[in-house]
Amino acid sequence: MKLALMTLIVAKVAFSSPAPEIKEVKAKFDEAGIEWNAIDKINWDSHTYKPEVAFRIMHSDTEIYLQYKVKENGVRATYGYDATSRPWTDDCVEFFVIPSNVDSSYFNLEINAVGHGIFNWGPNRQERYRGDDSVISQIRRESSLGSEPFGTIEGEQEWTITIAIPKKLYAVRDTNLADFSGRTIRANFYKCGDDTATPHYLSWNPIGTPKPQFHTPEYFGYLKFE
User: Fold this and answer.
1) In this predicted structure, what is the pLDDT of residue 84?
2) pTM (2 d.p.)
3) Cβ contact 163:140 at 8 Å
């Protein structure tokens, strides 16, 4: 199925440090007027639950910054560690991206509601290389729900998570990838929860597969980095 692909301009910002504290990143999102973008595509009739989810993104010379905000009925966070966790079974936000123009491998960052998750890469869903703790520890994260797993909290919940990703982590497949500035790359943003009270699978760019599947680079939209 052919679907229209969305395009988003990613603003470039400056910090006094190559790795600013998360509180500085959160403030910069507001100061720079970075707009929110909805993750609201229901792609499969089998899963129609639709939490309110949005993201915003910006970048500096050294890092990519993401911020997600979520409003949903109940929240699940059972994993309190990275690398070998299964964040997609919790309430989870995700960023899939093809950073290189010479290598079609894509990276998937999947983070649960308390900031723990995975950072993997490879050419397809079956051939994935798993980032270990030494890699994921370089990705700074801060959730409004804290960092400790709590199982499931019922009732209406709202939470926000801010993430800082060093660009150098994307150079593992293309050593010439020094920066994203002035480039257009492919990406998609997701919200899911396999084992939540109401499993759900939302995306920024629409997906045309017959059943839930996020490893679909052919449906990635476009990010134009300033």
Assistant:
1) 94
2) 0.96
3) yes
